[in-house]
Amino acid sequence: MAGQDTRIAIVGGGMGGLTAAIALRKIAGVQATVFEQAGKLGEVGAGVTVAPNAARVLERLGVLDRIRRVGAVPDGHGVYLNAMGGLVTDAAWEDSAKQHQNIGMYRPDLIDALAQEVDPATIRLGHRLVSVQTLGSGVRLEFENGADDVFDAVIGADGIHSVVRGAVGQFPEPVYSGYIVYRGVVDASRLPGDWRMISQVWMGNRRHFMCYPLQQRKLFNFVAGIPSDRPLRGAWSGPAEVRELAAEFAGPDWDPKLQEFIGCIEHTFWWGLFDHEPLANWSRGPITLLGDAAHTMLPHQGQGVNQAIEDSMALATFLAAAESVADIPEAFRRYTSVRMQRTAILQNGSRRAGAMFDAQHEFADLKKRDADLRVGRDFRRSAVFDYDAQKVAEQALNRFQGVPVA
Ligand SMILES: Cc1cc2nc3c(=O)[nH]c(=O)nc-3n(C[C@H](O)[C@H](O)[C@H](O)COP(=O)(O)OP(=O)(O)OC[C@H]3O[C@@H](n4cnc5c(N)ncnc54)[C@H](O)[C@@H]3O)c2cc1C
Predict the structure, then answer these.
(1) Dihedral-angle region of residue 302 (phi above 0 means left; psi in -120 to 50 means alpha; beta otherwise)
(2) Which is an annotated GO molecular function term of this record (predicted)?
């Protein structure tokens, strides 16, 4: 982008905001300023999967080697199992070219790996955004600590409760899924020596339990989805007792191997699962959205962060083609038109995946559910994992610019 002195603010120093800062610098040549409300960068002590579609982006941004070094690549494809541990189907775990596999990441390690690529002088901690005001020229941001500043453009990467989202005229209602998850990590040394180094999902009795390795296989992540109305009565997350979780998968109808895993858990916390309907717009003039602020989705396809990483690459690609600050609104408009379609499909697909895991609605007939799960594996590989966010943005750019596509 012409003009190295262009002033862009990214609100939110989570996985999306940090990736956007890296992509803007490396692809668009813009040094953005990141504003984070917390006193230090961090994440909850749980896992996240970096999928092949995001690994492809991170490789081009030069951070994939570091991420692979601290993450865990499984031994092979994952499995969906019934409650007693019988195989329902194998799961997609790599792209069609077999170049990128799922990488299990301990969230604090992923934040660290991304933060190492962002100049600390460009990160403002303890800055909670309270208001956004579009001026004749530029955007004014005000923070709870009394600070304020004016930028040429603003990217809202401030998560599900985004403040920036209001400045683009979007006020979605959070939609509760009817499910909470118990989350956490297990020290792998506590597990049986022959525990499989892959992702496993047990499904039964309207609930499911997933686990996969993290941190060079020293940790195992777990996520257990349980029907509950708890978030409707107060907080959306909180500490939990391991015995509450164990009781949900107790008895002779559940695989003893799963019960053995649960017996190794020392700590857990619960988290309500919310999303929102796809937004009608993400950008207004020099303001746009990215990550959960733009497209909060349920975690059942493991794509929330991965989509934020795709967003970052697409946004930087469109910004790289902007010749001056005056072109930024058009770059944001193009970014929105390309990314909204992709993420709306995944928001919907994530709800559907949850309904499959928990045999809800049309998936109550398990024979049909299992058939859909098997078919879903191939869709996931080709439509989700093979997607090349940079290539798609470049092709779209050619069309926007009227250049014939070869
Ligand atoms: C159980 C579970 C499992 C999941 N598993 C996966 C998975 O395997 N793969 C995957 O891709 N996704 C997964 N996700 C989804 C993923 O966690 C989210 O999509 C991701 O965290 C979104 O990143 P983000 O940076 O957009 O937002 P966030 O992570 O919410 O970060 C937003 C940042 O903005 C800051 N902020 C908020 N408001 C303000 C403000 N007013 N001023 C300044 N700063 C502010 C916050 O402090 C935070 O640091 C899962 C989610 C859950 C609940």
Answers:
(1) left
(2) monooxygenase activity
